[in-house]
Amino acid sequence: MQLLENRIIKDGKVFPGNVLKVDSFLNHQLDVDLLDKMGLEMKELFKDSGVTKILTIEASGIGVGCLVARHFNCPLLFAKKSKTLNIKGDVYTSKVESFTHQCTYDIIVSKDFLNENDTVLIVDDFLAKGNALNGLIDIVNQSGAKLAGCGIAIEKGYQGGGDKLRAQGIRVESMAIVEKMDDKTGKIIFRR
Amino acid sequence: MQLLENRIIKDGKVFPGNVLKVDSFLNHQLDVDLLDKMGLEMKELFKDSGVTKILTIEASGIGVGCLVARHFNCPLLFAKKSKTLNIKGDVYTSKVESFTHQCTYDIIVSKDFLNENDTVLIVDDFLAKGNALNGLIDIVNQSGAKLAGCGIAIEKGYQGGGDKLRAQGIRVESMAIVEKMDDKTGKIIFRR
């Protein structure tokens, strides 16, 4: 998606350790108009998949997830990262290793909101090694729902998570795939 | 807002300890169409306030915040609950006591995205004692931005946080104010 690639080049910042900082428009401050255009693009791509539910993970997936759900005219469900006092009853759980936070945490989705009648599009802001997506796919599988695929804002192609999922036959559509970054020059190269 | 009150009566669940569970449409699964209508209502209420930025707090404020920001055609900024590896540089911080999680945490907003030229509408899904809002207001004050007011989905009127803010001269607009709940009968009474 040219609009997103242009924005990453304009406002993204590359730091050592393969960190791409896009918090001016994607994960601290959100450009809702840009998210809405990504939502429209994902709707185009998955329009024939019979999607009944968008699934994401708190916190920064919620923004893009909301705008995708708006175009599909279906609910957004977000996995929570720890069991709070307000989630009662039966839940699906999985474990996710976080690169950013350097820890492993449980993700939780209530069984009330996902079952074998659903067709799920998983949405997230970033895809690197695929740890969060693997946890969400595990939850979709536990629920018996059908997985339409994954819609991602920015995929870090060089970390391999997206290609591993594609090799398993999972449809992964990323609005921008970063193939290479150089923290010395700030140069970002996208996959064609 | 009649639509939200009707939905709370239909799908909200009352538990002992003044817990109102609305996770089928507001804070686990999100009814994006309902959020969008709340966004439109808040735009109507604050249309003359010159709002340049919506400010909320992760995680469940992001959903309603996104749809409010869409109607104001401005960015959504969300306060983060702990310092991650990906936030660098100068930040505004404040402390918030969480009733749900029974702890105190730091909230953080990058100074890059909020300054004295902004007029801020603070948005959140719930207002009880007002702890989260007080932290966000503190951050707005630190930045020198103007506070237009607070737009809330559900206010628990009986916990007094909203009225304390109003007594300080802060404009607080809640889409539904729960005045009383009874966990034995499930009855919910709204403020008129």
Radius of gyration based on Cα positions of chain A: 16 Å
CATH topological fold name of chain A: Rossmann fold
Q: Percent of residues of chain A in helical segments?
A: 25-40%
Quote the beta fraction of chain A.
25-35%
Largest sheet of chain A: 6 strands, mixed
Q: H/E series of chain A, N to C?
A: HEEEHEHEEEEHEHEE
Q: Mean pLDDT of chain A, nearest integer?
A: 94
Class derived from helix and strand content of chain A: alpha/beta
N-C termini distance of chain A: 11 Å
Assembly state of the chains shown = homodimer
Q: How do the strands and helices of this protein lay out in sequence?
A:
Two copies of one chain form a homodimer.
Chain A: H1 2-11, E1 13-15, E2 19-21, E3 29-30, H2 32-45, E4 53-57, H3 61-72, E5 76-79, E6 91-98, E7 103-110, E8 119-127, H4 131-143, E9 146-156, H5 161-167, E10 172-181, E11 188-190
Parallel strand pairs in A: 4-5, 4-8, 8-9, 9-10
Antiparallel strand pairs in A: 1-2, 6-7, 10-11
